[in-house]
Amino acid sequence: VQLQASGGGLVQAGGSLRLSCAASGRLFSINDMGWYRQAPGKQRELVAGLSPGGSKDYSDSVRGRFTVSRDDAKNTVYLQMNRLKVEDTAVYYCKLGDPGAPGYWGQGTLVTVSS
Asked: Are the beta carbons of 90 and 39 closer than 8 angstroms?
């Protein structure tokens, strides 16, 4: 299993970014996945989850601003991030597997939101 996360970068507060997580096979349609982030000095946290059936869940801090979606034809999951805030600055990771399992992690992509 390989996961390749991309799409991070530097953006001003209020702006948008779209992260992508490409899998090495048709994995997202049969496994839970999640987008996590880890800010400097903080623990890694789950910000968005997507089930094989398409159910979505978000942390309170991003609900209404972030949207997780999936393209099974491309074996890719996306995280659309709108109205970004300085506190969204973090390394973002995608993970294949439910939150309680070790799972498989992508390499992380850095999102920096400037004021």
From this structure: yes
Which whole-number Å values give the CA distances from 14 to 52, 77, 103, in the listed order?
A: 31, 23, 32
| CB distance 27 to 75 below 8 Å | yes
Minimal CA–CA distance to 48: which of 56, 101, 76, 70?
56
In the predicted structure, residue 29 carries a pLDDT above the cut 90: no
Report pLDDT for 73. 93
Label the pairing between strands 90-96 and 104-105: antiparallel
The CA distance from 15 to 25, in Å, is 32
By percentage, how much of the chain surpasses pLDDT 90? 90
